[in-house]
Amino acid sequence: MSTTTNAPAEAPSSTAARFNLGAFAKKYLIVLILIGLVILLTILTDGAFIKTQNLINVIRQVSAIGIIAAGMVFVIITLGIDLSVGSIVAMSAVVGASLAQTADAAVIKFPGLDVPVIVAVLAGLAVGAGAGFVNGFLITKFKIAPFIATLGMMTAGRGAAYIFSNGRPISTLKDGYNWIGQGSLLGVPVPILLFAIVVLIASVMLNRTRFGRYTYAIGGNEQAARVSGINIDRVKLGIYVFIGTLAGLAGLVLSARIGSGNPTLGTGLELDVIAATVIGGTSFAGGIGTIWGSVVGALIIGSINNGLDLLNVSPFWQQVVKGLIIVVAIIIDERKNR
Amino acid sequence: MADEFILRMANITKTFPGVVALDDVKLDVRAGTVHALMGENGAGKSTLMKVLIGMYQKDSGTVTLEGREVEVHDTKGGLNLGISMIHQELSPVPEMTVAENIYLGREPLNRFKLVDKALMRRMAQELFDEWNIPLNPGMQMKALTVASMQLVEIAKAISYDAKVIIMDEPTSAITEREVDLLFAMIRRLRDRGTAIIYISHKMDEIFQIADEVTIFRDGQWVLTQSTAEMTQQSLITAMVGRELTQMFPKEHAEIGEVLLEVKNLNRGRLVKDVSFTLRRGEILGLAGLVGAGRTEVLETIFGVHRAESGEILVDGKPVQIKQPKDAINAGMALLTEDRRATGIMGVLSVRDNMLAAALRRYSPGGFVDAKRLEEAAEEQRKALAIKTPSLDQLIKNLSGGNQQKVLVSRWLLTLPDILMIDEPTRGIDVGAKSEIHRLISTMAKEGKAILMVSSEMPEILGMSDRVLVMHEGEVTGEVPRAEATQDKIMQLATGTEAAA
Ligand SMILES: Nc1ncnc2c1ncn2[C@@H]1O[C@H](COP(=O)(O)OP(=O)(O)OP(=O)(O)O)[C@@H](O)[C@H]1O
Ligand SMILES: [Mg+2]
Q1: Cβ <8 Å between A210 and B366
Q2: Could you report the per-residue pLDDT of B315-339, keeping only the tens digit for each?
Q3: In Å, how far is B63's CA from the nearest CA of chain A?
Q4: End of a domain among B178, B206, B240?
Q5: Complex ipTM
Q6: CATH 3.40.50 applies to domain A34-337
Q7: Whole-angstrom distance, CA of residue B266 vs CA of residue B268
Q8: B403/B346 Cα distance (integer angstroms)
């Protein structure tokens, strides 16, 4: 007979039943690219790259990118973009740090104020969520293109971070706060732990909740989604609040890592986040994207950064090489759709 | 001997992952004839045509054009060989003008090598004049109705002066007036020696226009015969592989109390003071010409557009409908007319497409109950005999008719009380069509209320308990089943008879 399609009774899910190497390789091509990259860097660095401690470093370095990329997947699936995440990182960093300074700091933002570290953390997250809410509000209520709305937030947010901190890093922070970036739990560095938790939550959200399925539906065809009774504005607003909150979290991690809330933190970060997301297979045409893909994308970026450092490639050349690798990875990934 | 055939396709096989779309099929077309290609949804008709124009690459087989074997690697190659195609799914560039759409990718240039817009406009105008197409080349594509877009698409295919023109369901979105226009064009083309490959699910069209017919079933060639030697019944039997007895299986349903009442609904020029009632168990047909405002009435009731004024009552209680969500909560469902624009979510799976509207039911507390959802989707697939290798298949890879079935199931899953359906059987094959009609009938019998827009007169006459006719945004009359005739409805639809 001509088809496997015609016999639903015999083969309810023929794709699952038959292992198809071609399809498997296609789907996980990006993982193969990562593995290839790891092997290449290991050879080039005489094995230094593959050392456990170095691998942990790689993951810790990309945890901020990876955390935000999990949110960027939602954004890009719905045909949006968020350029403001780098600036949100800075805002959350200075606000969080300002509430976590010790009394003996040289310059104190809020003299005499002593709140528990958890308050500083919540404040940082709230700043992120608030900025995300503003983005979402502009996009859904005023129908401003996400590119423009978040470009505004990117510029204004960076300025706000400078104003808040008088242009200087807010330093000498409590140990409890620094623990978020420098400590570890059960032998696992806290940033990596947070990265893992975020990935887990985002995966469940995207795949297992109504919110996630609606995200795909909107990206697949916004008009059809609306006719299907999906409240487009509410879902989009939720998405921008979500990524804003994640950027806030990343701001806390990055400031805690260096022990100070620096208003220049996260400059240019949005580009690495978008690159990680897109390398991970999220499509700018909408409706397509996975969280695990963005994790792989982040790891590819981290491996490149770290490997080139180990190889003592000059920072200028690093940028060139990174750009090339990103483009090549995406070209290879695109070709699978032919 | 070969010369009488302008086109011969032989031993063509084409597979997609998990699907053998074409299995060693053939198609022989004579110059100066109209050759119908028929078969059920997913039989492989569109796929064969896409192979011919170079959009898909065949796995094996040969294509012979005017006695010469050819290899077509891309659509440009197809056009260069003199083969053009009107696609089943329209793909207009909405922001461009009609003329720009027609000459997309082959714009005439002036001496500075810039696009000569004035010349392009003139060329389009000449084309329209020659073929009696009542359109303005300077209009923006997005301002056109679906029917007019289809005319643009037809004009574009003709403008290549092709030797072979493929028409994949060209009449699925247009009404009789445009169909007559199209048929006049086809006859002229045929008399000039052009070969037309004509794909349609509409039987009467085939007997009107086609000289020969080739039938596929499940990706295999079944027969090629002159239409003069066939009857409607033998054609259907060859297509479906069994006999199909009852065309409009309308069952008797108990007509109950009023479920939906629309009072003085207004919106723009296409919905003017529309009032009607719809009872439980009733199928109300909404007839009219394209552009009469039928779709707009449905969309306004459903909250796709905001009404300017008017009242909607469900079960005697007024309801506020600001967006489709409110309508769904009030127990309504709307199967929209434009499958591509407001229906399918192309890159999503069949499963996700089915559950877009009813997901709430399958996600208590916001978490998706994957097991129940899977069962529901699987049940729909069986019930509507949707042809797909799995529920994970992307809906864009399904044949047009099967996409339509998925959308029907999307709304059935919301368990609506009031089912509004806009051209429900567009592009659906005869077998599936009677299945869908049976389904509508059964729903009416279960006490649901059905409002059906259709441009197919037999469908309106065969299924409706009562027919509401619209003309230029107004309801011009209401005809009970017993009095409904084609003439009577056409008179009201063209506004040549005063309201009854
Ligand atoms: N790009 C694709 N990827 C995977 N499967 C495909 C693709 N295109 C078509 N198919 C499958 O090939 C088969 C034939 O599809 P095709 O579109 O040719 O049917 P058709 O005869 O034109 O049907 P309809 O009358 O519904 O338009 C179907 O089972 C369809 O799902
Ligand atoms: Mg088709």
Answers
A1: yes
A2: 999 999 999 999 999 999 999 988 8
A3: 21
A4: B240
A5: 0.86
A6: no
A7: 7
A8: 10
